[in-house]
């Protein structure tokens, strides 16, 4: 019988097959490290007198806790500073390469991997971070792990893993104008639910997925975890190979040919069977926005805040009531009438160069609405530099937005970039949990064009809602 | 081998007459911001340690190492810090009539014995310890018995966990028993797989 993409990658990494019901021991090709989930793992190694087995397959970057302005000053928050200092010390002690604040390759761990070419098809990639699923867009099997597993990988470069189930998510047809890959994944999560992917590795396939750029595919795989899945994958194709070619860590010369020949095999066989299948029609999609406090609580932008009273499932109704109370929203309010205080464009979901280009296109010649704060935060230093080379920073600044340094920033309330109590944000990030962007903060997850248009109109909007942009005066 | 092999252990028994002790009570979330894996003893049962009547604040029990707890011990979040805190304080054994699954799993991995016994036996142990504060309990993992004075109780622990504890094997130690297979796998990896070292260009 044929195998799925995920099964092929799994099989190629089995160091030792577990007896029936026992986990397989899997080899890990790349281990990404950041400051929050690694300190105790290194401490455990130290305590046991163990070295890092393969520092050359390990890379660290600082992203979660760091500020995105004044990066030359000491980190003000003591806990954050301690975690970052600890990572630097551990990296030095154990011989792990680190991209620290100020380094040209510093950035969000899931942006750095793909941009340096370290993320390649068919690899097993882990990180002490649930959004490691991002790297699956290259046809890698990539997933988040806990701190004791981080220690395990550091010490052995392997992980004992129980087999998973496979789910095909087929997105047929063509995406309508104005919709993006973010709308695909938000619609997927709304359809299967935040627990629908539990125990599965998702494989996104179909015409609409093939049509996406690599960076848009990263956005889809990034949020697999929000559907409860361990990982999400997309089979590599010519776009994947073209994206990787000539990146610093891409194979060169004869190695490149050998690698590509191997990568071409990484597709689900025609006769392979998935444990579950879901089909979505791209043509039906619209810009999607969330109204609640989990990523599954979303509706099309043209819709309204749902009425919990209409929900038949009691658990769902109770959850919706709680969400609306936290979000300060009334059932029936058209989504387009919801005003925001802050717009955040960034994160490992939507903080890459293509995202910034889309945002700049919407913002060019326009102004951010009065009373709205627009934060544009590149996912990495290289994204930042590229954007500046293209003049995108000027577009954001002229529109009245902030242009900041690279990091996780307002994606999570662990660094200085936070919402105040009761503040409402349209955010291109991936989680709208209570307090995620700051204690008491309210989050609407949106795509990049919706975020940019919302900054201009001040209420949730798509670019189609905007008046034509001012044309530069002729000289 | 990173853990001390566990065969028998004798230490002061500590009666914790509470049920449903969750991981937040074992160690509150504020202690999770630390960067070490040890030194969590001060966070153990932090909310109760201010109470002078709390059992660990009594001289007879202060140096306890065998915790005799009420049912449903270790419920709540999956934080491994709960086990670290108990171990750092000096506990080697927790006895209870029911453990949360994740806590039990985490314990086995970190070398803390979570032995399950009937609630009747727990109550009897509590009485013995109350009548003779500072009494020791001897736990024999091979025999799966806990002895206090002349009273002998049996407890349960699954065979796999028992074997691991007796061998002193943590997860990493277990994997490293297969190091030759890891070496062989590495030797066969394709040369074009990327490494993180700086690229010369
Ligand atoms: S950007 Fe957000 S989701 Fe991504 S790694 Fe950082 S904190 Fe996690």
From TrEMBL, chain A:
Any matching Pfam family = Aconitase
Recorded catalytic reaction(s): these are: (2R,3S)-3-isopropylmalate = (2S)-2-isopropylmalate
The terms under GO molecular function for this entry are:
3-isopropylmalate dehydratase activity; 4 iron, 4 sulfur cluster binding; metal ion binding
Q: Name one GO biological process term.
A: L-leucine biosynthetic process
Entry annotated with the keyword Glycoprotein: no
Q: Which cofactors, if any, are listed as required?
A: [4Fe-4S] cluster
Residues in coiled coil: none
Q: Which InterPro entries match?
A: 3-IsopropMal_deHydase_lsu (IPR004430), Acnase/IPM_dHydase_lsu_aba_1/3 (IPR015931), Acoase/IPM_deHydtase_lsu_aba (IPR001030), Aconitase_4Fe-4S_BS (IPR018136), Aconitase_4Fe-4S_dom (IPR036008), IPM_dehydratase_rel_enz (IPR050067), IPMI_cat (IPR033941)
Q: What is its EC number?
A: 4.2.1.33
Per the record, the domain of life is: Bacteria
UniProt entry keywords in alphabetical sequence: 4Fe-4S, Amino-acid biosynthesis, Branched-chain amino acid biosynthesis, Iron, Iron-sulfur, Leucine biosynthesis, Lyase, Metal-binding
Which positions are annotated as binding [4Fe-4S] cluster?
348, 408, 411
Q: In which pathway does it act?
A: Amino-acid biosynthesis; L-leucine biosynthesis; L-leucine from 3-methyl-2-oxobutanoate: step 2/4
Functional note? Catalyzes the isomerization between 2-isopropylmalate and 3-isopropylmalate, via the formation of 2-isopropylmaleate.
Family (UniProt): Belongs to the aconitase/IPM isomerase family. LeuC type 1 subfamily.
Complex formation: Heterodimer of LeuC and LeuD.
Name recorded for this polypeptide: 3-isopropylmalate dehydratase large subunit
What species is this protein from? Quadrisphaera granulorum
TrEMBL record, chain B:
In this chain the Aconitase A/isopropylmalate dehydratase small subunit swivel domain maps to: 4-116
Give the reaction(s) catalysed.
(2R,3S)-3-isopropylmalate = (2S)-2-isopropylmalate
Name of protein: 3-isopropylmalate dehydratase small subunit
EC number per UniProt: 4.2.1.33
Q: Which family does it belong to?
A: Belongs to the LeuD family. LeuD type 1 subfamily.
Concerning Pfam families, the annotation shows:
Aconitase_C (PF00694)
What the entry lists under HAMAP family is as follows: LeuD_type1
NCBIfam families named among the record's database cross-references: leuD, PRK01641.1
* Signal peptide stretch: none
Gene symbol here is leuD
């Amino acid at each position: 019988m044929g195998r799925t993409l995920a099964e092929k990658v799994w099989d190629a990494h089995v160091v030792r097959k577990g007896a029936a019901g026992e986990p397989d021991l899997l080899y890990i090709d790349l281990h990404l490290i950041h400051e929050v989930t690694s300190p105790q793992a290194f401490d455990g190694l130290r305590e046991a007198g163990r070295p890092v087995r393969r520092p050359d397959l390990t890379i660290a970057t600082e992203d979660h806790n760091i500020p995105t302005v004044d990066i030359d000053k000491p980190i003000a928050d003591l806990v954050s500073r301690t975690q970052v200092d600890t990572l630097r010390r551990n990296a030095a002690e154990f011989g792990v390469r680190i991209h620290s604040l100020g380094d040209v390759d510093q950035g969000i761990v899931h942006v750095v991997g793909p941009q340096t070419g370290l993320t390649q098809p068919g690899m097993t990639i882990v990180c002490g971070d649930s959004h490691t699923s991002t790297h699956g867009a290259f046809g890698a099997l990539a997933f988040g792990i806990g701190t004791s597993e981080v220690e395990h990988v550091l010490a052995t470069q392997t992980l004992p893993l129980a087999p998973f189930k496979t789910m095909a998510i087929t997105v047929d047809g063509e995406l309508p104008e104005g919709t993006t890959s973010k709308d695909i994944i938000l619609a997927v999560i709304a359809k299967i639910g935040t627990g629908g992917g539990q125990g599965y590795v998702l494989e996104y396939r179909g015409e609409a997925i093939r049509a996406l750029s690599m960076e848009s595919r990263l956005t889809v795989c990034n949020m697999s975890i929000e559907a409860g899945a361990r990982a999400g994958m997309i089979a590599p194709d010519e776009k994947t190979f073209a994206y990787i070619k000539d990146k610093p860590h891409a194979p060169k010369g004869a190695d490149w040919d050998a690698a590509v020949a191997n990568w071409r095999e990484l597709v689900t066989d025609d006769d392979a069977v998935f444990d579950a299948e879901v089909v979505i029609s791209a043509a039906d999609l619209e810009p999607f926005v969330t109204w609640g406090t989990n990523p599954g609580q979303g509706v099309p932008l043209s819709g309204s805040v749902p009425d919990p009273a209409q929900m038949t499932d009691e658990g769902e109704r109770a959850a919706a009531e709680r969400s609306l109370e936290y979000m300060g929203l009334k059932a029936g309010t058209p989504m387009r009438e919801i005003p925001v205080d802050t717009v955040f464009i960034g994160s490992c979901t939507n903080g890459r160069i293509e995202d910034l280009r889309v945002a700049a296109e919407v913002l060019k010649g326009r102004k951010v609405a009065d009373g709205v704060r627009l934060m544009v935060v590149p996912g990495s230093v290289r994204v930042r530099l590229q954007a500046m080379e293209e003049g995108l920073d000027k577009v954001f600044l002229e529109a009245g937005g902030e242009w900041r340094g690279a990091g996780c920033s307002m994606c999570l309330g662990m660094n200085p970039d936070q919402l105040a109590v009761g503040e409402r944000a349209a955010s291109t990030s991936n989680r709208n949990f209570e307090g995620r962007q700051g204690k008491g903060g309210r989050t609407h997850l949106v795509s990049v064009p919706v975020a940019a248009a919302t900054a201009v109109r001040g209420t949730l909007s798509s670019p189609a809602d905007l008046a034509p942009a001012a044309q530069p005066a002729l000289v | 081998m990173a853990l001390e092999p566990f065969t028998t252990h004798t230490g002061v028994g500590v009666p914790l007459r509470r049920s449903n002790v969750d991981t937040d009570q074992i160690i509150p979330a504020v202690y999770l911001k630390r960067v070490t894996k040890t030194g969590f003893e001060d966070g153990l049962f932090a909310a109760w340690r201010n109470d002078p009547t709390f059992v660990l604040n009594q001289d007879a029990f202060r140096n306890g190492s065998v915790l005799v707890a009420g049912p449903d011990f270790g419920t709540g979040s999956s934080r491994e810090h709960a086990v670290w805190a108990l171990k750092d304080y000096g506990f080697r054994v927790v006895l209870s009539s029911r453990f949360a699954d994740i806590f039990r799993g985490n314990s086995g991995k970190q070398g803390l014995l979570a032995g399950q016994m009937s609630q009747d036996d727990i109550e009897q142990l509590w009485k013995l310890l109350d009548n003779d504060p500072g009494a020791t309990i001897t736990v024999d993992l091979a025999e799966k018995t806990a002895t206090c004075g002349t009273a002998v109780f049996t407890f349960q622990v699954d065979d796999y966990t028992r074997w691991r504890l007796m061998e002193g094997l943590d997860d990493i130690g277990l994997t490293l028993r297969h190091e030759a297979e890891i070496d062989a796998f590495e030797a066969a990896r394709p040369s074009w797989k990327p490494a993180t070292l700086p690229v010369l260009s």
